[in-house]
Amino acid sequence: KSGCTEEVELTEEQKAELMQAFSMFEKAGKGKIPARDLGELLRCLGWNPSEQDLEEARHELELTTRGSISFEEVEGYIARRGGIYYGNNAEEDIMVAFQVLDKNGTGRITVSDFRHFLTTMGERMSHEEAEELIARSTQDGRDYIEYRDLVLAVQHLPT
Description:
Elements: H1 12-25, E1 32-34, H2 38-44, H3 51-60, E2 68-70, H4 71-80, H5 90-101, E3 108-110, H6 111-120, H7 127-137, E4 144-146, H8 147-155
Antiparallel strand pairs: 1-2, 3-4
């Protein structure tokens, strides 16, 4: 099939990052994630797949006939797409992270989930940077972050 880049070997770091993102969605311990979570998984990795990209992925991985997808299948798909590429827009990455972590759409996420994401995924922040952003995003010692507070905090990030 034309249009695909040649398959690349993912680096150990990319594999580790993919495994970490995969494990955020893999709840049952069966080594598979729900097919519907593929888009969110790719967003965790810094991709911004269009609906057409996701449709192609579902077709390529035959997800319409199965409800789940294995780590190896996701890894192969990413390798066929030329590996993991990151935009270097930290602001956008943080907002995507919020949406991914806010599974129920409540407009808030736990501080611990957010801290974990900031220091382990995408363009990793140092613990100091993460703590500063968290401090600017939380109010009155709450253990959660609200979206609107995060937006304000991110707007004041040093570029």
